Amino acid sequence: MLEFVFPWLFLLLPLPLLLRFLPEYLQQNQMVKVPFFNKLIEISGDKAKLGAKTQQPSRLQKSVLIISWLLFVLAAAKPQWLQDPIVQTKSARDLMVAVDASGSMATTDFKVASDNTVDRLTMVKSVLKSLAMERKNDRLGLIVFGSAAYLQMPFSEDHATWLTLLNETEIAMAGQSTVIGDAIGIAIKHFEESETKNRVLILLTDGNDAGSKVPPIDAAKIAASYGVKIYTIALGDPATIGERKLDSKTLKRIAELTGGNFYHAMDTSQLSQAYLNIAQLEPQTYDSISFRPKQSMHHIPLITLVIMNLCMVVYIRSGIKVKVPYDQ
């Protein structure tokens, strides 16, 4: 399909017609002034003529001028060819994962298929790997928190890099304690910069908040105002006491305030089931973007214009006769 970027320029097509109303250019001829001019006229029987003449182009030259003007206006209107529509599908959801990397995540109480036990962080990495592979169209982000919370990766469709950064996460790399409220706060900040309205945060922790700048419940209320849905997953034994006590009550309240769900995983199967439930509650959504590639065609009339006029110049200079100008 052909279209023009500046179609209004075609209004200039009749402009050369206005030139007909301009005074003609007169070319002076050589002449001799004599006192007996009238006698010469009588003897020769000729008529007096003007002392100037106008050069009239031949039909070929007129045709070239007209076509040149048409090609010039056509190129100025910038024709472009619209190709077939291309539809791109992209995720309509941003999914942030906040992983607790405090010292308590070193506890080895998760069994794997070989009946061996692994630490909690290793098990979390294994399940999150499956999550990233299944949600190929979601934009994923990663937060690691301990005594402080850090953004490891902003929202991106580059899941390979996301998994690399997740695998590089080590126990206590962010400190020994747990700041749940600060982790939620960082997630809110980056969701605020996001354009999508489908905002989900999965928060995994095995402890309780230890001195966040913003209390977890207050952070959850702010998250709810930004449309962020939080799914909380508590890891390990709920009977733990002391600094490593699992605060299930706060995690449940966070999920309730934001419209998410709370899950408790004491083993591998329960952790995997929690992710399956989240996947069912948050099916992948897509936005379709359609656009038509445009190929500019303005160079074609320009090239034609140049070639045609060059040929005309060669034609005239080659000595081929054109229509002889007449006197006026």
Q: Treating each run of at least 4 consecutive H or I residues as one helix, how many helices?
A: 9
Shape: rod-shaped
Helix content: 25-40%
> Which strand order does the major sheet show?
10-9-6-11-12-13
Task: Report the average pLDDT across residues.
Answer: 80
Strand tally is 15
Q: Which ranges are low-confidence, i.e. pLDDT below 50, for 5 or more consecutive residues?
A: 322-328
Radius of gyration: 41 Å
Share in β-strands: 15-25%
Distance between the termini: 50 Å
Secondary structure topology:
Layout: E1 2-4, E2 27-28, H1 37-44, E3 52-53, H2 59-76, E4 79-82, E5 86-91, E6 93-100, E7 110-111, E8 117-118, H3 120-134, E9 139-145, E10 149-156, H4 159-167, H5 180-192, E11 198-205, H6 216-225, E12 228-235, H7 248-258, E13 262-265, H8 268-281, E14 286-291, E15 294-296, H9 299-317
Parallel strand pairs: 6-9, 6-11, 11-12, 12-13
Antiparallel strand pairs: 1-4, 2-3, 4-15, 5-14, 7-8, 9-10
Helix pairs in contact: 2-9, 3-4, 3-8, 5-6, 6-7
Descriptive overview:
The chain is α/β, with parallel strands linked by helices. It is 36% helix and 22% strand. It contains nine helices and 15 strands. The protein has helices spanning 37-44, 59-76, 120-134, 159-167, 180-192, 216-225, 248-258, 268-281, 299-317; strands at 2-4, 27-28, 52-53, 79-82, 86-91, 93-100, 110-111, 117-118, 139-145, 149-156, 198-205, 228-235, 262-265, 286-291, 294-296. The strands form five sheets. It has a six-stranded mixed sheet with strand order 10-9-6-11-12-13, sandwiched between helices. Helix 3 packs antiparallel against helix 4. It is rod-shaped. 26% of the residues are buried.
